[in-house]
Amino acid sequence: MAPSAAPEIEWRKLRADQLRELAQSDAVVIVPVGALEQHGPHLPVEVDSMLGEQVALRTARAMAAKGEPVVVLPMLWTGISEHHMSFGGTVSLDLPTFSAVIEGICKSLARHGFRRIALLNAHGGNENGLRCITDELTPKLRLPIVQLTYWNAAAEPIAAILETQASIGHACEAETAMMMAVRPELVATDRIAMAKANSTPDVSDIVGGGVYRWRTIGAMSSSGVVGNPEAASPEKGNRLFDAIAATLADKLCNAELWALPWDAERLA
């Protein structure tokens, strides 16, 4: 007997009746959120959205292989990127607009009967906003919304693979490697050396942790790069994708994550 085909996990490729069935099966909906912004002298502006979509799709396929019903929305390709505007090529939303878009998406999902929503973030500038949005939407929609930024949720396996960085930066060893793995034709390898730049200390380098200041990327790095793209390779990019997808799939397939009590009023 021929093996059954893998289930379709892309929302945009499914019919409305198939999506109604997924809602009835309590499928997890992954909402990937990215950005459109400068990525140094060697990478295209859509890096965060391209990589975030790949992470979401690979995670969903790993979840489906475990028998978990799951579907992935198309990538939300713009987010909060004011700190990149000085380099050009960036499209940014303000927080109220960004929040309204995320709320509209989640409201639509809830109206269709989906009860498990994961906001999968692929851009650091979105993180604070998405955390606040999750705090507001969870009681508003009465849903246990999960928010995760992929390099934080998979920090340990990422750190074990990277050689010159402790974590993912910007247009760095990791992002360059991942782009080499999936879209090598968009990586200007002859310009990677231009990523070396004058840089300024981080706030934590001056006063230690626990203190925050908003700063533009241009004020941190004259090239718009934070990290070391010279250490990138396609092989490293594939290893990163595999490790990230496996880690996120394990976490999102954990039934206790979704069953964990979140509202004291509902327990009373």
Structure description:
- There is one protein chain.
- With 268 residues, this protein is an alpha/beta fold.
- It has a single domain, classed as 3-Layer(aba) Sandwich (Rossmann fold), CATH 3.40.50.10310.
- It contains 12 helices and 4 strands; from the N terminus they run H-E-H-E-H-E-H-E-H-H-H-H-H-H-H-H.
- A 4-stranded parallel sheet has the order 2-1-3-4, with helices on both faces.
- Helix 3 (95-111) packs parallel to helix 4.
- The model has no long low-confidence stretch (mean pLDDT 96).
Question: Features of this protein?
Answer:
single chain, 268 residues, alpha/beta, Rossmann fold, four-stranded parallel β-sheet, globular
Side-by-side strand order of the widest sheet: 2-1-3-4
CATH architecture: 3-Layer(aba) Sandwich
Task: Determine the mean pLDDT.
Answer: 96
**Number of helical runs?**
12
The figure for the number of domains is 1
CATH superfamily: Creatininase
What portion of residues belong to β-strands?
5-15%
Structural class: alpha/beta
**Number of extended strands:** 4
Distance between the termini: 52 Å
Q: Which of globular, elongated, flat, extended, rod-shaped describes the shape?
A: globular
CATH topology: Rossmann fold
Provide the low-confidence segments as ranges.
none
What is the highest CATH level, the class? Alpha Beta
Element-level helix/strand string: HEHEHEHEHHHHHHHH
Helix content: 40-55%
**How does the major sheet shape up?**
4 strands, parallel
Calculate Rg over CA atoms.
19 Å
